[in-house]
Automatic annotation (TrEMBL):
GO biological process, one term: DNA-templated transcription initiation
MF terms (GO), sorted A to Z: DNA-binding transcription factor activity
Superkingdom of the organism of origin: Bacteria
Protein family per UniProt: Belongs to the sigma-70 factor family.
Annotated organism of origin: Fusibacillus kribbianus
Entry-linked PROSITE patterns: HTH_CROC1, SIGMA70_2
InterPro entries, per database record: Cro/C1-type_HTH, RNA_pol_sigma-70_dom, RNA_pol_sigma70, RNA_pol_sigma70_r4, RNA_pol_sigma_r3/r4-like, Sigma-70_Factor
Protein known as: Sigma-70 family RNA polymerase sigma factor
Domain spans labelled HTH cro/C1-type: 83-104
Amino acid sequence: MFLRAERKKGREVSLYEPIGTDKEGNVISLVDIIEAESRDVAEKISVDQDIRRMYGAFEDSLSDREKQVVALRYGLFGGKEHTQREVAAVLGISRSYVSRIEKGALLKLRSVMQKEPAPL
């Protein structure tokens, strides 16, 4: 139980945690190297186009059940992200079936996104 609880904390990172030292021997932390500048316009446009393509592929290539599982798992359309266990409870199916549906849906989306050329 302890290991499961600690695994949830594994993705947490402190901004003040030391990550190394500079030439003079001073400790460097993440907060020292993070830039607050926004992304450039070209990158923002590219990301927005990719998101639109993904939502299009989501609507066109997935079944209703797959759409429901992926939307709940990843918090699409402004929703909250849910665990597989929570999705299973909502849909009244097993957690392993949620995992199977999710994996199949993500593989479909990946193949569709790789086949479609990016719009100019």
